[in-house]
Amino acid sequence: MSVRNTLRAFPTLLRVGFSEAVAYRAEMLIWVLATTMPLVMLALWSAVAREAPIGRFGQSEFTAYFLADFIVRQLTGSWASWQLSFEVRTGTLSMRLLRPIHPLMAYAAEQMAALPMRILVALPVAAIGLWLVGAKHLPHSLGMWALWLLAMVGAWLITFLANVAIGSLALYMESSLKVMDAWVALFFVFSGYLIPVELFPSGLRAVTNWLPFRYQIGFGVELLTSGYATAADTLPFFLRQWMWVAILGGLTVLIWRRGLRRFGAYGG
User: Fold this and answer.
1) pLDDT, tens digit (0-9, with 9 covering 90-100), for 198-227
2) Do 4 and 90 meet the contact criterion of CB atoms below 8 Å apart?
């Protein structure tokens, strides 16, 4: 499985993955509908803010935040854990191992190939958000937009790598889905998905700043809604985000390689 073969095959993997995403668009629609919690939270927090602002958040700020929340969620989602767990359990992972492309690269291509379909969903929401709150909440410089794109790459990598690492635990146990359920529960609490992190008590916010979950969603949302005055303000957050990319990358490789030896030893 050489790097050269992988790079040559990657565009083809993206095309195949996109074709599958189009073919299974009903499943994609179900996935999108399952990630509409930010719109529910928008209704709840807007009702609360109708009486008085909460911190810096009035109704307009909550609208901008949760619409951005929905967009970021669409662009950074991953289902690799469930896919990997299923393929280990059914033995179909063996077929992937016979191909000249590393399975983890194939999973990455399949996840990335679905992005155009998700963007088609996110664009109308972005248009509605722009119409509702105007451009005042958006980044006002190309530099901040570039930082947002970088944060999106980091967020996608954290989500994908966490999914693969947890999915690879199926090589050690009967099912890794309970572990993924625990990760998702922590994600809901600490990522900024259901409540802006800056509304947390200061002690809890300090802890959240060092957890990976904020860098999956909240950090990107804050950048998209002008939550930082200058690029320098974002530096500590970028350092922690990419620290988690490195940690999860190393952990994924370790779990995968050792688990694969067990998989082969048991005749998987």
Assistant:
1) 999 999 999 999 999 999 999 999 999 887
2) no
- Please tell me the total count of domains within the chain: 1
- pLDDT tens digits, 175-191: 788 999 999 999 999 99
Structure-token pair, residue 86: 């299923």
d(CA 34, CA 74): 11
Tell me the pTM: 0.85
End-to-end Cα separation, the chain, in angstroms: 19
Q: CA 130, CA 64: separation in Å to the nearest integer?
A: 8
Q: Could you list the residue range(s) of the whole structural domain that residue 215 is in?
A: 3-265
Instruction: Pull the structure tokens for residue 134.
Output: 């105007």
Q: Which of 180, 157, 174, 165 is nearest to 257 (CA)?
A: 165
Neighbouring-strand partners of residue 54: 57
Q: What are 176's two structure tokens?
A: 């890794």
